């Protein structure tokens, strides 16, 4: 019909005819994915299966009563109205009233219980997805937009919810009504039934033509929604940077482009979907006209009674109505399956697992050894991120990591925390390979103080207590005092009960850092991983942070990404990284005496 599906108002094509008509080489695989998706939804029903059987039984009842009503009307016409004999008609009318009341009650109950089932399924789906996200490795989140993941948690699951709430019963009821109506119609008049069934092939061809296009377009729409949500989340989070660099026009243009893509996908998806009721109504009216015309001729010839014609015309509408419903719901189901596939694709991601782990019962002390460790990020085609790195840090010592951006300093910390596992070599903690230690056990021994501290939307005390959830109020205050944070906390509107919103935007960067130090202090870890954040802090606050860090690091094995010379001077060991390799190590004085890379860094004022 068209060489391309074009953007409205004469813009360039969005999807070519060839793209939409091209046979999908993975058609069988996609069909199998649909089956797998539906099977996973069925498994989520679980405890609700008995109630679901009750609901389906009520669907049988309501469908049977829907068929019985028109039959009784035709019976009344043939047995009482046409012969003008009304004796006994009252009883039949009473039965007819009970049939319609029973039909209404069964519809109400099945809808009421189905909503409960649907919400329980969605609750489990949402809960399992969120729980699964907590068990996925850091590498998973590094490769995906957070807003796109949020879209799967909200939009895609809501799509499944609306379909389960309404479409499931409607589809099942439509199939039963079609089957029952066809049987009764064949019993009453095979000829009129044949005339009614003529529209089915036409409907099938029309729906096939439409849904071949809407299926792809719905997936494109869900993908566009995810991308747009990701961009919105990122923009809101980085609003200060956007304003600081006056990038509002560029952001607005990017939003317009993504929103335009979503609009185009939604426009064509719903445009094609909108064809279905129009086509169905046209075919329904044509079928009804044919049945009414031929039925009238048959009634005049005495081949069928007037009551049968009345019953049949009602059944013909009752036959095409579920076809209409099936056609309309098919698009909704397609959209829900597309959303469910996106949700289950996340659930199918491999969780962070501990293979062949040891039961570490001894109290860890903090000796760290890197033995010829090499690592590169998954899918990276460039050189190794770190290569053949070997060093050892004794119990309670502080190691300062120095080097240019991209030298591998942060990667060493991430490997030590097992956010990633080394490709080659071995990392040992107190002589035990950390690859053989449960991640939870390992990470309980480690605390982080990051360059950009993250605070939750919660009270000050709860943010500190995040390092030790069962900490008492006295322990929280003690940790705050140790981090030099107590004085400024006391001056907040509600003290320790002050709610921090917007990632703690109501307090300064230095105060955030003091709270993150208090959080690490209350955790009482064996190992500290520190990324100093004093470069943009005023001198007074910097002194407080330095004092708090010294208190925190006392007696603990610490790794510090050093940005200030003062930190390096106090370190027991300096590790100089360059292009992923450890090029120098030793005390500051030893490195200065060696007159190598570290000495040149100091001479060039790069530290």
UniProtKB/TrEMBL annotation:
<keyword id="KW-1133">Transmembrane helix</keyword>
<keyword id="KW-0472">Membrane</keyword>
<dbReference type="InterPro" id="IPR027417">
    <property type="entry name" value="P-loop_NTPase"/>
</dbReference>
<feature type="transmembrane region" description="Helical">
    <location>
        <begin position="50"/>
        <end position="77"/>
    </location>
</feature>
<feature type="domain" description="ABC transporter">
    <location>
        <begin position="368"/>
        <end position="604"/>
    </location>
</feature>
<keyword id="KW-0067">ATP-binding</keyword>
<feature type="transmembrane region" description="Helical">
    <location>
        <begin position="89"/>
        <end position="109"/>
    </location>
</feature>
<dbReference type="InterPro" id="IPR017871">
    <property type="entry name" value="ABC_transporter-like_CS"/>
</dbReference>
<feature type="domain" description="ABC transmembrane type-1">
    <location>
        <begin position="53"/>
        <end position="335"/>
    </location>
</feature>
<dbReference type="Pfam" id="PF00664">
    <property type="entry name" value="ABC_membrane"/>
</dbReference>
<dbReference type="InterPro" id="IPR011527">
    <property type="entry name" value="ABC1_TM_dom"/>
</dbReference>
<feature type="transmembrane region" description="Helical">
    <location>
        <begin position="168"/>
        <end position="186"/>
    </location>
</feature>
<dbReference type="InterPro" id="IPR036640">
    <property type="entry name" value="ABC1_TM_sf"/>
</dbReference>
<protein>
    <submittedName>
        <fullName>ABC transporter ATP-binding protein</fullName>
    </submittedName>
</protein>
<keyword id="KW-0547">Nucleotide-binding</keyword>
<dbReference type="InterPro" id="IPR003593">
    <property type="entry name" value="AAA+_ATPase"/>
</dbReference>
<dbReference type="InterPro" id="IPR039421">
    <property type="entry name" value="Type_1_exporter"/>
</dbReference>
<dbReference type="InterPro" id="IPR003439">
    <property type="entry name" value="ABC_transporter-like_ATP-bd"/>
</dbReference>
<feature type="transmembrane region" description="Helical">
    <location>
        <begin position="289"/>
        <end position="312"/>
    </location>
</feature>
<dbReference type="Pfam" id="PF00005">
    <property type="entry name" value="ABC_tran"/>
</dbReference>
<feature type="transmembrane region" description="Helical">
    <location>
        <begin position="192"/>
        <end position="211"/>
    </location>
</feature>
<dbReference type="GO" id="GO:0005524">
    <property type="term" value="F:ATP binding"/>
</dbReference>
<keyword id="KW-0812">Transmembrane</keyword>
